[in-house]
Amino acid sequence: MTNPETNPAPHAAGGHLHAPSAWNVPNALTVLRLVLVPLFVWLLLRDGGHTTGDRLLATAAFVVAIVTDRFDGDIARRWNLVTNFGKIADPIADKALTGAAFLGLSYLGELPWWVTIVVMVREWGVTALRFWVIRHGVMPASRGGKLKTVLQAVALGLYLLPWQHLAVVHWPAVAIMAAAVLVTLATGLDYLFRALRLRAAAKRPLP
Questions:
Q1: What single string gives the DSSP state of each residue in 115-180?
Q2: Which of 15, 91, 110, 207 is most buried, with most CB under 10 Å away?
Q3: pLDDT exceeding 90 applies to what percent of the chain?
Q4: In terms of pTM, does the model score above 0.85?
Q5: How many angstroms separate the CA atoms of 55 and 61, rounded?
């Protein structure tokens, strides 16, 4: 995941700064993730989500997309391939993937709608907060935010499996999703307070 707060400086050659080309591996992985979203939704909702083969393929598509999210940012930062396209497309791809999973599962009646609403309000709310304070500073991703992402990914992956009738699959999915919702709410409040403090500090007159 491309995080603008941790991006390295562009390559320097001959005393001049050169922005990396948008045609690179990290951006290709981000585009792949975006392309996988409609395929994932189609597989998940096909035949009402009751076909074991389609559910396994949907789960596989989700896992592949999540893995690309893990590696594209690492590659971009390590090789100084961070681009404006990546900064914009990466979070869009992230929210499109997880949002599609939450909405799809709720549409199928396998996940309560209130869970999906709480998570999506938090996700888009934090995005709005970042834009609200962008003139005053940045809010880097917190450890809680990273934990939230991991918990959501694991919980969604378990919910996508076609064996929810088995206790060994269903109850771990429920427990991890409950933890994900709690961390989602807690980190959302944390981001809100951080945004308010950032704006207050920016408006405070200099001594």
A1: HHHHHHHHHHHHHHHHHHHTTT---PPPHHHHHHHHHHHHHHHHHHSS-TTSHHHHHHHHHHHHHH
A2: 91
A3: 46
A4: no
A5: 10
Calpha distance 137→198 (Å, rounded): 7
Strand 11-13 with 16-18, pairing = antiparallel
Structure tokens at 67: 């893995």
Q: What string of DSSP letters covers 176-190?
A: HHHHHHHHHHHHHHH
* pLDDT at residue 153, as a whole number: 94
| Domain ranges for the chain | 24-108, 111-201
Give every CB contact of residue 140 below 8 A, 6+ residues apart in sequence.
Answer: 3, 5, 6
Rounded Cα gap, residues 147 and 125, in angstroms: 18
Helix 143-160 to helix 52-78 angle, to the nearest 10 degrees? 160
Distance between CA atoms of 62 and 55, rounded to whole angstroms? 10
pLDDT digits (tens, 9 = 90+) for 129-154: 877 876 776 666 667 778 998 999 99
Q: What is the DSSP letter of 3?
A: -
* Residues composing the chain: 207
Identify the residue whose tokens are 């096909």.
Answer: 46
